Amino acid sequence: MTALRAKPLMSLEEILYSGFLGLLFFYCVLAAGKAVDPVFAFHATIGAIASAAGIFLIVRSFIDRDGRVEPDEINGKPNYNLGPIKFASIAAMFWGLAGFSVGIWIALELAYPALNLNLPWTTFGRLRPLHTSAVIFAFGGNVLLATSFYVVQRTSRARMPGLVTPWFVILGYNVFIVLAGTGYVLGVGQGKEYAEPEWYADLWLTIVWVAYLLVFLATLWRRKEPHIYVANWFYLAFIVTIAMLHIVNNAAVPVSVFGSKSYVVWSGVQDAMVQWWYGHNAVGFFLTAGFLAIMYYFVPKRANRPVYSYRLSIIHFWALIFLYIWAGPHHLHYTALPEWASTLGMVFSVMLWMPSWGGMINGLMTLSGAWDKLRTDPVLRLLVVSVAFYGMSTFEGPLMSVKSVNSLSHYTDWTIGHVHSGALGWVGYVSFGALYCLVPWVYGKRDVYSLKLVDWHFWISTLGIVLYITSMWVSGIMQGLMWRAYTNLGFLQYSFVETVEAMHPYYVIRALGGILFLAGAVIMAVNLYLTIRHGEAEKPAADVALAPAE
Fold first, then answer.
1. Which residue of 41, 220, 358, 514 is 20 to 30 Å from 226, comparing CA positions?
2. Residues 6+ apart with CB under 8 A from 449
3. TM spans, by residue (predicted)?
4. Which of 23, 22, 152, 39 lies closest to 85, judged by CA?
5. Please, what is the Cα angle at 218 between 215 and 224, to 5 degrees?
6. Is residue 330 part of an annotated ligand binding site?
7. What does the pLDDT look like over 15-61, one tens digit per residue?
8. 131 among the known binding-site residues?
């Protein structure tokens, strides 16, 4: 008599996630029906659809695997979980193109205001946070998720644990992006820089972020490599600090659990202080520490050289982590914030120059003995130029935090030029370089489809960055000087409208620079698509027979 095969059972992880998403589905359906405003009803509907889709994917995955579980190792080698990394890489490219496009549109709106189309959804005030969130959190965030999941597995020589959790992190994060982006366009937001999403989106991101931290820590816990590589230190600092910043800055009380409106618990100058403690450290830990982790893995890998000084990388880490958290008050010079607080922020900002340049030197000197590769490898060129932009931005930032400089630069386009030299040159280029490495690796390709296209991407986008930041430097300094110009009688020499009129040609140049940067990103998207579909497959490494010693 043939024994009956036992039916496979869902894992505890699958059951818990299914239950959680089921409860979330019922709340979202209830909230959509009881919503006190149409935007909340719309977002509740998105939440219900996402929850139902999540349950469907869990059940379908359970059925497809038929009780089988992916082994941690195959033939003694780690069996890395690459599926979530592939999704995040493609999502990063999609959101990047969307975010760059919106940025160009609002740049053109500043030059030609009629382009707001006289519609509420296309005004600068709604599209500007859409642009910043799309490029920072959607593009940059997905790059960080993809690279961190890849790097922590490879440097730990261990498979990322969980059937559902890695996918929950990736897909849940992108659901947050959809909620945030649609909320901006529809006019729902807190009005906090880099933290505009309302309470329910913030709460959802908190849940996703805790799952992200746990899966990252669990991978480190399972590591076969005794040493924790320095890139993982930077990733951990980024994950933990962003969690702390997010929770404190977004502490709010909703008017109704069925409505989008909430009130932040901080008020007045305390709110300003918390906002810029968050705002500057979002730059420091999201856009700096996280992407320094990328630098410390991808530059040595692409150059095929060890990190120049591992000891310097550890000093870089601890100095940066300690100093950055204190620098936020320099955003509030000459405001209601007590002067001692803003001066303290300025002092720490100036001190930050040293560890920042220590990291830059470490990244650049990693190419010792491999500088010739810059002529032939445009991917490495992107990564190295990104480190150079990091050095430039981290010199300019402390300079602009000094009170005498800040009195000229603050509230002007010089700040916009500074931000975009870091965002386009540092974050953009290191992300592009990482994706050019990562996509072939996770799809089993030898290299990107066309290095010539990478070369075109590099030069076109570099020209765009130069046009962008130089036009904003000139515009900003001119703007500041015009604002502080007085006549012999002590009256302001220029009206505000005259300063706006004077900036028009620089706004046009800025938009042109953005168009060139987008053109480079489009070339990249085409190249990565061709890499995935038609790239040359990686040949399996042959087992090398060791010769006996003589």
1. 358
2. 527, 528, 530, 531, 534, 535
3. 15-33, 39-59, 87-112, 132-152, 164-187, 199-221, 233-257, 277-298, 310-327, 347-367, 379-402, 422-444, 456-486, 506-530
4. 152
5. 130
6. yes
7. 999 999 999 999 999 999 999 999 999 999 999 999 999 999 999 99
8. yes
